[in-house]
Amino acid sequence: MVTKFKMKTILIGASGLIGKSLINQLLESNLYREIQSWVRTPSWTPDQKFVEMVLVFDEIPDIPSVDANHIYCCLGTTIRKAKTREAFRKVDVTYVSELARLAERSGIKTFLVISSVGANPKSGNFYLRTKGEMEELVKACSIPSIYILRPSMLLGDRQEKRFGETIWKILSGLFSPFLFGSLGKYRAIRADYVARAMIRCALASKPGIHVLESDEIQRLAELGSVVIANPETLDRHRNVPLMN
Prior knowledge:
- The protein has eight helices and nine strands.
- It is α/β, with parallel strands linked by helices.
- The protein has a single domain, classed as NAD(P)-binding Rossmann-like Domain (Rossmann fold, 3-Layer(aba) Sandwich), CATH 3.40.50.720.
- A seven-stranded parallel β-sheet has the order 3-2-1-4-5-6-9, sandwiched between helices. The protein has a two-stranded parallel sheet with strand order 7-8.
- Helix 5 (163-175) links the parallel strand 7 and strand 8.
- It is globular, with a radius of gyration of 17 Å.
């Protein structure tokens, strides 16, 4: 059953684990009448609700405004792909913060972005410091509702193999039973769970800035998938309390 909801959304970062899952779940949810995915290279088959728009990311500051209710930002890269710290920072900080500023000047209601467990602008670790700097820039934007999700190591099938992730997954499996309480946020989490939690956050769109650690994302995702069959279903999903 397809409902006639009028919301529109924009997704950036559809090629990663979370982004791919997010597209599938958004299409299944019936929450939006239009889903735009901003990409460098098209890779999905468009349908009635879904369309890919090729974007030169360096030109984001030149976009006057966009028409959408929510923006999902799953943009990110790796040092291996970026080659240099400068190129990595350009993607993970510059592009993401420029997208947030675009949301701000467009009057977007809700901006959701993927960060990382341990993100801290003062961290001695380059990756975590970069994520922390991105968070601060996003928080500085005047957007009614901001959600920053900090997942731990992602579980899912990647096309590329990452040696560090493979080792971490093995260690995570061994130590997960001992990661509880304040350490629970370090447990590995399924990418499709992160995508599911993002949709729930967008649906709630509570005013303010909300930072969700990985264990909070897990609990939110375990409430179930968001599939809107009718307005009553929409209200039921929207009224689910969030963690903060």
